[in-house]
Amino acid sequence: MSKRWVRMFTMCFLITILLAGCSSRSRSETIIIPDAEETSQVKEEQGAYDVKTIYRILSKSSELGTPIGWIHSTSLLSLFDENENTVSMERVDAPYEEHLKLFGIGAKLSFMTFSPASQSIAYVKQENGSFGLNIMTLADQKETVIAPIAMEQLRTLRFGWSNNGRYLVYLSNKSKNKGTSINVYDLMDHNLKTYSFGGWDEADIIGSIQLADDAQSVAIVRSRGKQFYVEIGTWNGSEMVRQYEHLAANDSQVEWIHNDQIAFIGQEGTLYAYDRRNAAFSVLVEGVNAFRLSPDRKSIAYAQDKDTVYAASLYGNNVLNKTQLFKGVIPSLMAWSQDNRRLLLCGWKPYEWDKPRAAPAPAPAPESASHSSAAQVVEGASRLNQNLVIEFK
Q1: For residues 57 and 23, what is the distance between their CA atoms, to the nearest angstrom?
Q2: Is 158 exposed, middle or buried (0-12, 13-18, 19+ CB in 10 A)?
Q3: HSE-CB for 87 with a 13 A CA cutoff
């Protein structure tokens, strides 16, 4: 073998050893590189929550309305008090200084809850001495009677929706002390299914109930004494079976991220995500007192230190691109527009919250029902200090 070939062989051998040594050192860390599409999405989201304009709703008007959600990407649906017997549903368009009456509703409506899909309103209607659950579609004001409600059921009645707005879910005691039921109404197929809730105890108070988009699972916030819990249940025939339970913050919210994962605030104020497919329990954000996911579940608004509101992107179990939106409001209601370009923020100023007198009644959140009449909702929510729309660049 010639000397030239010997030298080339020796150099290749040395290079191989060096590369092997570098490789062994690099294996001491695990680096996950996202694919090009995900990396591009993260870069595009940077700056997505920079604030362009903050609107104070009806700031130049002497009329007090109560925003309850978005009816269009730039328009709000609000309640206005007309007289002692009637309130009106009205549209408030950008720049949120004028309102247009859509229709009037009787004051004898209660437990009003607005669909996340901005298409329907559910409520309990009192008529001729009896109560009934009704749904009205906003496009044509068509009213559909879903089921009768006994007077003794009103105390335990709780409403919720699936995020896609297709299903309405409500929980109540059965009449004549026959236990508790969870009822699911399909707005597309117009049918009602009822499931028994065996986990109910007379000492329990149900705070909220939310349904997954496939209508196969339910998330419930309940309290017993001073302890609050969040739980996931699924259907087994005509019964609900509990799958998961965790201590939660007082009056904690719960939202479905997707059909197998929920987000909720734990007892210590940490925002968690729980995925039942692999029992994965993840920390999203610490020190949270309120949160709201966007309709597409890709963005999140949340409050820390009571009155500082942020927006961020939700990628898997990671919260990225945190951006401060507003400081000085303790949220009672946060709602994303359907295009994710605006956030409705309603609440109190901190000094109003800390006053020793009774706090004003909060505005009704789109995912929860108001237990008062429509007129009482307007009266109570009008005492809120702040009704804002935050528009992003």
Answers
A1: 60
A2: buried
A3: 22
Q: What is the pTM of this model?
A: 0.81
Whether 335 and 366 have beta carbons less than 8 Å apart is answered as: yes
Helix (H, G, I), strand (E, B) or coil at 174: coil
Torsion of CA 307, 308, 310, 316, to 10 degrees: -70
Kindly state the DSSP code that residue 266 receives in the 8-state scheme.
B
Q: State how far the Cα of 48 lies from the Cα of 262, in Å rounded to an integer.
A: 24
- Provide DSSP, 102-151: EEEEETTEEEEEE-TTSSEEEEEEEETTEEEEEEEETTTTEEEEEEEE-G
- pLDDT above 50 (res 38): no
| Residue 23, pLDDT score | 38
Element (H, E) at 181: strand 180-186
Beta strands in 216-363 (DSSP E): 217-224, 227-236, 239-248, 254-258, 261-265, 271-275, 280-285, 288-293, 299-304, 308-315, 318-327, 330-336, 342-348
- CA dist 163 and 298 (Å) reads 13
Residue owning tokens 């901190």: 350
Mean pLDDT of all residues belonging to the chain: 82
Here the tokens at position 364 are 């009704």
**Residue 353: per-residue pLDDT:** 64
Measure the CA–CA gap between 391 and 344, rounded to whole angstroms.
Answer: 9
CA–CA separation, 120 and 100 (whole Å): 18
Residues 341-364 have a mean pLDDT of 68
Q: Please give the structure tokens belonging to residue 354.
A: 């800390």
Give the whole-angstrom CA distance, residue 300 versus residue 323: 11
pLDDT above 70 (res 211): yes
